[in-house]
Amino acid sequence: MASSIFTNNSLSLSLPAANNHNQKAIPRDFLVRLPKSAPLSSPCHLELKSSRLKVSATASPATPVMDQSSTKTTSAPPPTTVEVDLGTRSYPIYIGPGLLDQPDLLQRHVHGKKVLVVTNTTVAPLYLDKTISALTAGNPNVTVESVILPDGEKYKDMETLMKVFDKAIETRMDRKCTFVALGGGVIGDMCGYAAASYLRGVNFIQIPTTVMAQVDSSVGGKTGINHRLGKNLIGAFYQPQCVLIDTDTLNTLPDRELASGLAEVIKYGLIRDAEFFEWQEKNMQALLSRDPGAFAYAIKRSCENKAEVVSQDEKESGLRATLNLGHTFGHAIETGFGYGQWLHGEAVAAGTVMAVDMSYRLGWIDDSLVKRVHIILKQANLPTAPPETMTVEMFQSVMAVDKKVADGLLRLILLKGPLGNCVFTGDYDRKALDETLHAFCKS
User: Fold this and answer.
1) 134: how many CB neighbours lie within 10 A of its CB?
2) Kind and range of the H or E element at 298?
3) Average pLDDT over every residue of 222-233
4) pLDDT digit string (tens) for 143-181?
5) Looking at the predicted structure, is the pLDDT value of residue 23 above 90?
6) Among the listed residues 315, 305, 300, the one whose alpha carbon sits nearest the alpha carbon of residue 267
7) How far is CA 413 from CA 27, 69, 429, in A?
8) Degrees, nearest 5: CA angle 108-109-110
9) For residue 197, what are the contacts with CB-CB under 8 A and spacing of at least 6?
């Protein structure tokens, strides 16, 4: 018979010697250390199999159940959820750390048995395996394929897009399949457009891994590719099943990419959320130092602002256009200077300064706001002027084919009134636009 003694949350157990030649010899006396999560007041179960002792303990109700192979709890905290209200096409934005370690969040939005993950050469080594695990954990019926695209804005074109279609067709993705965009804004836009087009539309999920994508491009259903004559001129409005923002992915984001995304965060404050802008002025250093709490709030508030606008104006007939503050000038910089030379947020930052300058020339804002915009962009390590190679003619030629041109009239998003107010209009003095362009360009 075995005898046992309990002392100090441990169990000393004496076992009889082996009684046949098939049974491995085991020590007659050994000590079993019980997990701290299982105090001796809790019921314990001892089981001996093939000379191995299995110890299990039932924790008291007040004690969290722990994973015995690690120090993590078995249940993760629920994510923050922001809803994009589009009626029957509404979807959640999940925000929080470690969301790729919560398979249920992704799997509940996967339709069918086939998944195609679209990512790039930078993100794939970091998060592709984790994403595939999240899609397949406890779900053996799902088959996951992946296509890894080259990284960069200059590859956001039709030729690269065809690689997604090639993979989808080769692996026989069907109408019930789900495309998953794993990466920044370029991947999100391209995967979304591929999903909108493949078999005339299949489901897709956004997993943004950059600040830019997390606070802006992954939300709202804008998808597309660039043309050599203009940015995002080919695309579709196509909403995802969900957006999953694992804030841990920002840990691997380069500083320049992180700063680029802050241009869109700043935009929300300027156009519609004065309180958020004032918060940014006080917390910019915390954002740059990647403070988890600060970033969680910045992402949440940005998504709330965008979700509210998209819910009211999905197809950009008016209100949603205001989200493009600085983008008309910024897209001209990206196109004229060369895709990928400047990051999108860097071009938007310089474009925002130009839009603010024009707003001031029109007499719509006071100079204190002009100064505040300059200060916060510099704090965020973002440019406040376009590249020196940009000319007035380059701006004019690209802006002439901007998506916001209607009946030959270029409409702009400009600030008007106190902080947090803007207009989308073609009713402005053309002299102010010319003065702004000449003020920022040498020729």
Assistant:
1) 24
2) helix 292-312
3) 92
4) 999 999 999 999 999 999 999 999 999 999 999 999 999
5) no
6) 305
7) 79, 55, 14
8) 100
9) 165, 236
Location of structure tokens 């990419």:
257
From CA 197, how far away is CA 323, in angstroms rounded? 25
Residue 342, φ and ψ in degrees, nearest 5: -115, 145
Among 5, 25, 28, 4, residue whose Cα is nearest residue 16: 28
The rounded Cα 101 to chain-centroid distance in angstroms is 16
**C-beta separation of 154 from 99 below 8 A:** no
* Residue 197 Cα distances to 168, 193, 201, 223, angstroms: 12, 6, 5, 11
Cα separation of 328 and 319, whole Å? Answer: 16
Q: Which residue has the higher pLDDT, 21 or 318?
A: 318
Q: Which tokens belong to 218?
A: 């992954």
Name 265's Cβ contacts closer than 8 Å, sequence gap at least 6: 211, 215, 280, 287, 298, 302
The answer to whether 247 and 292 are in contact (CB under 8 A) is yes
Average pLDDT over every residue of 63-81 = 57
The pair of structure tokens assigned to 60 is 């008291």
Q: Which stretches of 64-171 are DSSP H helices?
A: 103-107, 129-136, 158-170
Residues constituting the chain: 443
φ and ψ at residue 206, rounded to 5 degrees: -105, 125
Cβ contacts of 69 within 8 Å, gap of 6 or more: none
Q: Could you give phi then psi for residue 439, rounded to 5 degrees?
A: -70, -30
Show Cβ contacts of residue 3 under 8 Å, excluding neighbours closer than 6 positions: 13, 14
Question: Rg of the Cα trace of the chain?
Answer: 28
Instruction: Please state, as a whole number, how many other Cβ atoms lie within 10 Å of the Cβ of residue 290.
Output: 15
Structure tokens at 19: 């009684």
Q: What is the DSSP string of 246-271?
A: EGGGGGGS-HHHHHHHHHHHHHHHHH
Q: How many angstroms separate the most distant Cα atoms in the chain?
A: 101
Amino acid at 418: P
SS3 call for 179: strand
State the CB neighbour count (10 A cutoff) for residue 326: 28
**Which residues make beta-bridge pairs with 204?**
179
- Calpha distance 317→313 (Å, rounded): 7
As annotated, the active-site residues are: 200, 222, 264, 306, 316, 320, 324, 327, 331, 344
